[in-house]
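Q: Hi! First time doing this. I have a protein sequence and I read that you can turn it into a structure. Is that right? Here it is:
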Amino acid sequence: MTISIYNASVPVFKQMLTALSEVLRKAEIHATEKNIEPNALLQARLFPDMFPLVRQVQIAVDFSKGVSSRLAGAEVPSWPDTEVTFADLQALIAKALAHIASFDATQFEGSENKEIVLRPGTPKEKKLAGSAYLQHYGLPQFFFHVTTAYAILRHNGVEIGKRDYMGAY
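A: Yes, that's right. Below is the predicted 3D structure, encoded as C-alpha cells:
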C-alpha cells in the first residue's frame, strides 16, 4: 500500500494547525483566568536562544503553507510576520488552513519525484525529491515548531496534554 504525498501532508497540516489553534485558545483563557499578561505567554521561550511562542507559531504556519504550495506546484504566498496577539495568531492559522484547503489531491500527483530546491542560489542550496522534501525536511520542521509552541505553553502552566497536542484524527 502506498500513501499519496497529498494524504501525507495536507490532512496532517490541517489536523495539527487546528490542534495548535485550540491550544492557543486554551492559553488565552488560562492567561485571563490567572490574570497573566498575555504577552508573557506570547513572548515566552523554552530557553533564551530559542524563538518565542509567537515566532514558533509563525514558522509552523510558514512550513504548512510552503510545503503544501511547493508540492502542489503553486506559488508560496508571502505573509508578513506581524502577529502580536492571540487573536493575530488565530487569524494567521485560519489563513493557513484556508490556503492549504484550497489544494486538491490531483495537484500533488507526481510530486514525490518533483525536484524541490531549498535556498536556491546560495551556498546552502539543497535539491530534494518531493517525497524526501516532505518526509525528511518539511514535516520534521513543521512538527518541531508545533511541538515547541505546545511545550512553551505547557511549561508555563497552561493545562494541556497529549490529546490537545494531537487534536482530532
